[in-house]
Amino acid sequence: MMIPDTIMGISFLAAGTSVPDAMASLIVARQGLGDMAVSNSIGSNVFDILLGLALPWFLKTSVTSTGSKVIINSNGLLYSVTLLLATVFITIVSIHCFKWRLTKPLGYMLCCFYCVFLTICSMVEFNVFGYVNPPICAH
């Protein structure tokens, strides 16, 4: 379908791995533990980034191929990570503006933030704002 692997990672794979976290957050939020739900949603993503990326890269560069470098196929990673950090900041500020209460309007707003994040990241990876991602290999 000629979809870049970075788009697959940002959207489909991320959604698939986040469903269990979302269900856990939903369960604890319904039990009245909204702070635990928010902590889970933010903490799991921070854990995924800091350990999910760092551990394989560390093992590759220090254990299996000492002194090697990990090659990343996207020059748009800097933009995506910056946008992701901005989204986390906006999420925390939004929750603060809603007086630390999880409401339906806040939920809709956060869903809109995710759609904006996904759209901008996809546009970056599809080279809309400039050349950051090499063309997809034919095979």
**Mean pLDDT across all amino acids:** 82
Reported for the largest beta sheet, the result is: none
Structural domain tally: 1
| Poorly predicted spans | none
**How would the global form be characterised?**
globular
> Percent range for helical residues?
over 70%
Q: What integer value in Å does the Rg equal?
A: 17 Å
Counted beta strands: 0
Residue share in β-strands: under 5%
Structural class: mainly alpha
Order of helices and strands: HHHH
End-to-end separation in angstroms reads 11 Å
What does this structure look like?
There is one protein chain. The chain is mainly alpha-helical and 139 residues long. It has one domain. Helices cover 72% and strands 0% of the residues. The protein contains four helices and no strands. The protein has helices at residues 5-30, 34-64, 77-97, 104-125. The longest helix is centred in the middle third of the chain and has 31 residues, at 34-64. It is globular and about 50 Å long. The protein starts with a helix and ends in a 14-residue tail after the last helix.
